[in-house]
Amino acid sequence: MELVPRIIQMQLWSGQSRECCYDPFGEQRFVGRSTWTPNTDIVETENHVVILMELAGVEKEDVRVVCHEDILQISGTRNRKALPEAKCFHRMEISYGPFEKLFRIPKDLKVEEIQAEFRNGFLEITLPKKRADELKRIVVVYEES
Fold it and tell me: How many beta carbons lie within 10 A of that of residue 133, not counting itself?
């Protein structure tokens, strides 16, 4: 099984949609196996970027976080709870089944130091920022005509 589905690779090679150009965490939308999409907040602090994903009813064993190069993949499954035998359902709004979200990680974050914590139905992923002295400086060479 490929980590990043082939259609995602094709999208990355052919260029990003306008939405991804303006969003440094451009969410990859062409994910084929999801049946629902968890709500997600992305917050930047002075030293970190924090991704907070709402996963009520998902067991910790059913959550997977993988980083491959500059793509962060969050996937899992919310299994349907046993319901009482019902004569009629008046409303069914809770989504069940597999989910997957992919995010492009900006280069100024330390991918090797990503931390994830699952607590009270929320997945919190912390991505430390690189310090200014850790960023690669490019020397510009000037040629005289």
Answer: 6
pLDDT in tens, 61-116: 999 999 998 999 999 999 998 888 878 888 889 999 999 999 999 988 999 999 99
Hey, what CATH class is 6-134 in? mainly beta
Q: What is the pLDDT of residues 32-68, one digit of tens each?
A: 556 899 999 999 999 999 999 999 999 999 999 999 9
| Strand spans (E) along the chain | 27-28, 40-44, 48-54, 63-68, 71-78, 97-104, 115-119, 122-128
Compute the distance between CA of residue 145 and CA of residue 127 in angstroms, rounded to an integer.
Answer: 45
